[in-house]
Specification:
Two copies of one chain form a homodimer.
Chain A (H helix, E strand, L loop, with lengths): L3 H13 L8 H11 L6 H12 L4 H25 L4 E2 L2 E2 L1 H5 L1 H19 L4 H30 L5 H26 L4 H28 L11 H4 L5 H9 L2 H11 L4 H14 L2 H21 L5 H15 L4
Antiparallel strand pairs in A: 1-2
Helix pairs in contact in A: 1-3, 2-6, 3-4, 3-8, 3-15, 4-6, 4-7, 4-8, 7-8, 8-9, 9-14, 11-14, 12-13, 14-15
Chain lengths: 322, 322
């Protein structure tokens, strides 16, 4: 078995070695670009870790891991168009660099590349892998749709919000793990348990992100602290505050939402969060999901020592400050 | 064996019976919309006809036929965004009706729906089918990319143009047939021969389209006669004329390209085509590809009577006036 860092390196190498067609250059160049922007490769790492739990071979599982990573990067290209985002990992987004039309089409062909990767799996596991992959991809699209709709919606319930982040973010972590388990020959129940682990870990991870956006250490947090507040993003914290706040405080929140002084806006909105102990309440909500994740992994009927790396990775993700 | 009309009806029914998820509504509504705009369903008909050549079962082949038709309609949604097209089959395009972001995302999830259809095929033929489908999808994306690039390019050779329409249009006809043959258990050689038939038929079909745009009967041709001329579209006819025209005639062509009086523009450009017998030359080029198609089907080693329907369909496509 390997550590997450070792697996990340193996994946990084495999990503660099994917051969895309040379022509038309403008179609494939954006794929090479986004795939080489790096990141922690957390999704394919989870696929390989899930496979190793069941003594699966890393190289045999690699097509599934690369399919997941390629699909994820495809969604980044199309999401960035829809969100009108100028930057991705500190670099120009694909549509900024090559134009929207090119970004749409390079994204489309990346989806095909992901499916090509997947089709290299052993025939014996192919059908199950396709079903998991397609269900995952569909969920991610649904999540992005809900995310866009929620931006326009006046009222969003916390349950709806959790369902949205489940689809947009968590389903892919769950799917990545289920895929790894299936390729390694896990039983349907075992594969499903890993899905549960990954999905709940993903929800907890995203809620943690919501908390860190406000309470993260500016020295350690990768993004701008208060970014969600500036953008009036409907996060768990904002939705929770809206549920609890008095009429007066809701008015203050409304006023802050149009405050052009960003430093002041962050300070005053955070003060409102503090008044209602939103950080504590959000942490409780987050813990619900991380508990579910850990309990799914705990109840998985395999030797405890095989689970060590996965427990430690999950622990690390849940206790990060960045 | 069935006639193309019978198969079209079977497919129409199957398309109407595809169950898409209900929510998020705005994600799936565009799929139902574009899939119900109709059309001749020529690609899935070819898939089923190819299967019947090898005594394949229609219902067993249907997932492949529906995957092809779903994929084709997905490309229509994304192409219409890129081409900024307001209408598709006389109705509002998806991005006009639901907005660009929604059209991108509904297209994406349609690609997943196509893959879901395909994954319902028998495990025994799944890997070959995936390879054919993915190679086809990749080719179509490359064709669209080249089409966009050619619009910006000053000089496009006829060979490059034919390669572009091969990828953008013909590869999908070839892939549709190869897929049908593979699902029905044809040998690799037989499947490849049907691919050759479909691909060359597709090229001839598109060249025929270029000719009909100028010389079609306005009463019978589905689109506006002269539409390509108005749009200064680089068709086989225009590229051929540019190859042959004198300096003077090239100047006249240049002048016509900015002529705002469309009736006059069509009349004068067509006169230039007539001067160089472009219609005859284009027909010769077209015939090269239809001959290749017919010869691939002729040399296929199966009972002649099984080929009758396919020959007659191809004949009809090549001698259409609309």
């Amino acid at each position: 078995m390997h550590t997450p860092n070792q697996l990340q390196e193996v994946i990084e190498n495999a990503v660099q070695n994917i051969q895309y067609a040379a022509h038309p250059q403008r179609l494939y160049e954006p794929i090479r670009y986004i795939m080489s922007l790096g990141g922690k490769r957390i999704r394919p790492v989870l696929t390989l870790m899930a496979a190793e739990l069941f003594k699966g071979d890393i190289q045999k599982t690699m097509p599934a891991a690369l399919a997941i990573e390629t699909f994820h990067n495809f969604t980044l290209i199309h999401d960035d168009i829809m969100d009108n985002a100028p930057l991705r990992r500190g670099k120009q987004t694909v549509h900024e660099k090559w134009g929207v039309n090119n970004a749409i089409l390079s994204g489309d062909v990346m989806m095909v590349e992901a499916n090509k990767q997947l089709s290299m799996l052993d025939s014996a596991v192919l059908k199950d892998a396709l079903n998991t992959f397609n269900a995952t991809a569909q969920g991610v699209c649904e999540g992005q749709q809900l995310d866009m709709e929620f931006e326009e919606q006046e009222v969003v319930s916390i349950a709806d919000y959790i369902n949205m982040i489940r689809l947009k973010t968590a389903v892919l972590l769950g799917g990545a793990m289920k895929l790894g388990a299936q390729v390694a020959g896990a039983s349907p129940d075992e594969a499903e348990q890993l899905y549960t682990f990954g999905e709940n870990l993903g929800i907890a991870f995203q809620l943690q992100d919501d908390i860190l956006d406000v309470y993260g250490d500016p020295e350690k947090f990768g993004k701008q602290v208060g970014g969600d507040i500036i953008a009036n993003k409907k996060t768990l914290l904002l939705l929770k505050l809206k549920e609890l706040a008095t009429e007066n405080d809701l008015q203050e929140l409304e006023y802050q939402s149009v405050n052009k002084d960003h430093v002041d806006k962050i300070k005053n909105t955070t003060a409102l969060y503090d008044d209602y102990n939103i950080r504590g309440l959000a942490s409780i909500e987050m813990k619900k999901y991380s508990d579910k994740a850990f309990s799914a992994l705990t109840s998985l009927n395999i030797a405890e020592e095989r689970k060590t790396e996965l427990f430690s990775l999950a622990d690390q993700l849940m206790n990060r400050e960045y």
